[in-house]
Amino acid sequence: MTTMNLSVSTSVRTKWIQLFLGLVCMAAISSPQYVWTLLTKPMAAKLGVALPELQVTFSLLIILQTFFSPFQGRLIDYFGPRLLISIGTLLSGMSWILTSQVDSLSMLYLVYGCVGGLGTGIVYVGVVGLMVRWFPHSRGFAAGMVAAGYGMGAIVTTFPISISLKENGLEQTLWMFGILFAVVGFIASQGLKMPSENSNDVAADNSSRILQGKRHYRPTEMLKHPLFWLMFLMMAVMSTSGLMVVSQMATFAADFGITQVTVLGMAALPLAMTIDRFTNGLTRPLFGFVSDRFGRENTMFIAFALEGCAMTLWLVCKDNALLFVLLSGVVFFGWGEIFSLFPSTLTDTFGTRYATANYGWLYTAQGVGSFLGGPLAAMVYQHTGGWNLVFSMAIGADFLTAALALWVLKPWRKRFIEANQH
């Protein structure tokens, strides 16, 4: 009995170490996306290009990160997380080091957009796929924690990078932080490993009340099931609806007259964006934790409806600066949890053996949202001259997806799992 208890204790410690290492890896690759805005002005001045041309770099980063994830996930499942995530952290850091030496827009596209996008995509998909294996009965929480590490990791580096740009210039900042990101991420990735399927590595979790299938579906099998495409549609719609609003926040804040107002002695827009970043990170492990105990679809309904209600109040109270700031945090709180709820739901449904490759396919839904959200909102605003229709479309999408979660996904997934238990 003592030996068994010691084994369980070791297993518990091991999985929490894995979660910590995954968090570090995610934080190490967060800056290329979240700190890009600090680099645009000095980079445009260095290369002598207009901002729209420069922003293609960021689009390439997101496209390579999301739309190549099925291929990256398959490689991770084949070669193992340690090797591929190590390569991903090095590619991500190297993209900054190489960017410090670029002298043309095409080279910037290649090294920051393409190399950086591939590196961050490998790490993101790999770490999430690994965590849902290590925490089979707390998948929502574990996926949410590492997703929060990616979303909030840049908080640690934003101010140091901003200060370094002023004191040391663009080139030195890029290579210095690029080396730091690569080294930290690479060291953390060396401790990552798969749990043993026939051991006590994950046996210490409490008995789960979450409905989980016993069969392990390959990606080719999963893609044949309409249930997967329902999840894909729901994640794409939620990603698009959220980005329709949050990507245009500075623009409609100016139209609402918020940018010239202070709240609690601070400028309203920067205060709102600071709160947003915190709530967008907090919601991922929190709603993931809730979903582990009360069900994935029940939690989706609450979170998606919460975002719809918050957006409605945001629009109605657009002239109140204090409510604008507070409700912006609630909107982000109701949006960011898609990065914990969907990967855990997918793995519950289609099994763990091919979890990383399977999530790679689902993660492309985020790419669809990134591709559609901002441009769609800008197009609608341009044609209508206001934000009412933009908000109405996003709000409608939120409530529609909430209804799909509770009244379509939940019963369908239950029938699917019950029919495929053997």
Describe the structure.
By secondary structure, the chain is an all-alpha fold. The chain folds into two domains: about 10-190, Growth Hormone, Chain: A; about 220-420, Growth Hormone, Chain: A (Up-down Bundle). It is about 80% helix and about 0% strand. It is built from 19 helices and two strands. The chain has helices at about 1-30, 30-35, 35-45, 50-65, 70-80, 80-100, 105-135, 140-150, 155-170, 170-190, 220, 225-245, 250-255, 270-295, 295-315, 320-335, 340-350, 355-385, 390-420, and strands at about 260-265, 265. The protein has a two-stranded antiparallel sheet. The two termini are about 30 Å apart.
Topology, pairings included?
Layout: H1 2-28, H2 31-34, H3 36-47, H4 51-67, H5 69-79, H6 81-99, H7 105-134, H8 139-152, H9 154-168, H10 170-189, H11 219-222, H12 226-246, H13 249-255, E1 262-263, E2 266-267, H14 268-294, H15 296-316, H16 321-333, H17 338-350, H18 355-384, H19 388-419
Antiparallel strand pairs: 1-2
Helix pairs in contact: 1-7, 1-8, 1-10, 3-4, 4-7, 4-18, 5-6, 5-7, 5-18, 6-7, 6-10, 7-8, 7-18, 8-14, 8-17, 9-10, 12-18, 12-19, 14-15, 14-16, 14-17, 15-16, 15-17, 15-19, 17-18
